[in-house]
Amino acid sequence: MARIIFVLIIAGICFGVFFEKPKESPELPKKEVLRAPTKWEVAMQRALPKIINNYKEDVEEAGRKFNVNPDIIVAILVVESMGDPYALSSKGARGCMQTLPSTDVEINMQGHDSFDCPTSIMKGTKYLTVLRGRYGLTDPYQAIVAYSDGPTRVKNYTEEEILNKSYLWKIRAVMRKIPEGTFL
Fold it and tell me: How many whole angstroms separate alpha carbon 115 and alpha carbon 86?
């Protein structure tokens, strides 16, 4: 009988040790979810410093002349062509800022070389001014989306549709990467 009691005591101790409720563990800090950058993000991060280095003065000049934030000009330049002066879209848009020949006529800059990046920067920046003035797109986001989608379409977009455009998201992503104080 003593043996049975001894075995039961040992079994109870073992059961308690192996099957006791685990103690509360301290809360671990939440880890930030990391993701690999997209191909576009990698290309943007490579192109941005080159564009700023090569075209800073042209961007500042166009910004002053047409009263446009230089960060917006650089962002459009990156999103439209990654700074490629010879970029040509399937719709016929040309140069760094990807203006169409019809846009060049509208802004009275036809005949100027679209494949010359400083000229293209002037054309694109002037077009942004036309979008704000002639089409009454005073909201900067509206004007930026109109640069891509056209002013007629944008006038029919809701504010939510404008804010959810991938074009605008890319522009804003580039603008966040421009070092503060880059432009005067």
Answer: 5
What would the pLDDT profile of 100-151 be if each residue is shown by its tens digit? 999 999 999 988 888 999 999 999 999 999 999 988 888 899 999 999 999 9
Residue 79 counted as domain residue: yes
On whether residue 87 sits in a domain, the answer given is yes
Q: What is the CA radius of gyration of the chain?
A: 29
**φ, ψ for residue 170 (rounded to 5)?**
-65, -45
CA atoms of 61 and 125, how far apart (whole Å): 10
Could you tell me if 91 and 113 are in contact, meaning their C-beta atoms sit under 8 angstroms apart? Answer: no
Query: Which domain does 73 fall in, by range?
Result: 39-177
Give residue-wise pLDDT tens across range 53-69. Answer: 999 999 999 999 999 99
Q: Are 94 and 50 in contact (CB under 8 A)?
A: no
Q: Is residue 159 part of a domain?
A: yes
CATH number at residue 80: 1.10.530.10
**Helix or strand (DSSP H, E) at 9:** helix 2-19
Above 70 in pLDDT, residue 8? no
CA dihedral (77, 159, 154, 103) positive or negative? negative
Token digits of residue 152: 């007629």
* Residue that the structure tokens 């001894």 belong to: 6
pTM: 0.79
